[in-house]
Amino acid sequence: MDHAADAHRTDLMTITRFVLNEQSKYPESRGDFTILLNHIVLGCKFVCSSVNKAGLAKLIGLAGEINIQGEEQKKLDVLSNEVFIKALVSSGRTCILVSEEDEDAIIVEPSKCGRYCVVFDPLDGSSNIDCVVSIGTIFGIYMVKDDHEPTLADVLQPGKQMVAAGYCMYGSSCTLVLSTGKGVNGFTLDPSLGEFILTHPDIRIPKKGKIYSVNEGNAKNWDGPTAKYVENCKFPKDGSPSKSLRYIGSMVADVHRTLLYGGTFMYPADKKSPSGKLRVLYEVFPMSFLMENAGGQAFTGKQRALDLVPTKIHDRSPIFLGSYDDIEEIKALYAAEGKKE
């Protein structure tokens, strides 16, 4: 890459321009999705700024409250949640919001109500804030059809019904990865312009990867197929090189690496968490949506992740996602286990 030439580019594809270009392909579009996305982008910029100056602004540390998941809330968690709720409501395009930080869904008042439902984790990986590990925002978007008034049932749908999903990672750079169901694109925030610029067009995950990502501290509680897959990663029987273990413990960071480099990200069910640990609506579904649109797969140990039908807004699920061939191997191990039973 010619960095010197790149620094003087003037024809930049910003995320707003990108979405407007996509919108122009649908003459019937009213621009509502573009407006909604602009408000999500604004929320991401605000949180990015807050994360970058968290230490100086005394935003690091605990807020002193426990959220619905039983986790201590960090100050930045609370701030990020407020930022996204206000940004989404003020867009005038949302009707129902589901946040990791709130016990109940937020029903938008009729005067500001639109046709989109947004599910989001305002600050994923926040336990890593104090040690400056990459953290991020995850979001998924559903659309309510015009033939009925919005209800919670419009959110409790399979992930395959989402119209868009993405995440924004706050790390060495601020990167927003988005899919509207036709491919996956990555945008990086240029602080000098205050704009997200298209830097990773048409992301495609390698068909097979060399990395696996899992919390091996839980190994004693794993089921047979998970343990067998990890053993195969370490001691392949076909003579191929062993896979490398890379685990950050921040889902956004681990999935982002998996998306770009290939391999698998796993958070399986185990004896401690028989229903899995990650939340279906705002963690499993958006990341699975992105992974499938980049050519990978997402699997729960029983079925395609995007076919799950949540019954509660904070439902949890096991998840295996990543390169197509690697997930095929995991699916085969679970199928073989099922035949034994």
TrEMBL record:
<dbReference type="Pfam" id="PF00316">
    <property type="entry name" value="FBPase"/>
</dbReference>
<dbReference type="GO" id="GO:0046872">
    <property type="term" value="F:metal ion binding"/>
</dbReference>
<dbReference type="GO" id="GO:0006000">
    <property type="term" value="P:fructose metabolic process"/>
</dbReference>
<dbReference type="InterPro" id="IPR033391">
    <property type="entry name" value="FBPase_N"/>
</dbReference>
<keyword id="KW-0479">Metal-binding</keyword>
<keyword id="KW-0119">Carbohydrate metabolism</keyword>
<comment type="similarity">
    <text>Belongs to the FBPase class 1 family.</text>
</comment>
<dbReference type="InterPro" id="IPR044015">
    <property type="entry name" value="FBPase_C_dom"/>
</dbReference>
<dbReference type="InterPro" id="IPR028343">
    <property type="entry name" value="FBPtase"/>
</dbReference>
<dbReference type="GO" id="GO:0006094">
    <property type="term" value="P:gluconeogenesis"/>
</dbReference>
<dbReference type="GO" id="GO:0005986">
    <property type="term" value="P:sucrose biosynthetic process"/>
</dbReference>
<dbReference type="GO" id="GO:0030388">
    <property type="term" value="P:fructose 1,6-bisphosphate metabolic process"/>
</dbReference>
<dbReference type="GO" id="GO:0006002">
    <property type="term" value="P:fructose 6-phosphate metabolic process"/>
</dbReference>
<feature type="domain" description="Fructose-1-6-bisphosphatase class 1 C-terminal">
    <location>
        <begin position="205"/>
        <end position="334"/>
    </location>
</feature>
<keyword id="KW-0963">Cytoplasm</keyword>
<dbReference type="Pfam" id="PF18913">
    <property type="entry name" value="FBPase_C"/>
</dbReference>
<keyword id="KW-0378">Hydrolase</keyword>
<feature type="domain" description="Fructose-1-6-bisphosphatase class I N-terminal">
    <location>
        <begin position="13"/>
        <end position="201"/>
    </location>
</feature>
<keyword id="KW-0460">Magnesium</keyword>
<dbReference type="GO" id="GO:0015979">
    <property type="term" value="P:photosynthesis"/>
</dbReference>
<dbReference type="InterPro" id="IPR020548">
    <property type="entry name" value="Fructose_bisphosphatase_AS"/>
</dbReference>
<dbReference type="InterPro" id="IPR000146">
    <property type="entry name" value="FBPase_class-1"/>
</dbReference>
<protein>
    <recommendedName>
        <fullName>Fructose-1,6-bisphosphatase, cytosolic</fullName>
        <ecNumber>3.1.3.11</ecNumber>
    </recommendedName>
</protein>
<dbReference type="GO" id="GO:0042132">
    <property type="term" value="F:fructose 1,6-bisphosphate 1-phosphatase activity"/>
</dbReference>
<dbReference type="GO" id="GO:0005829">
    <property type="term" value="C:cytosol"/>
</dbReference>
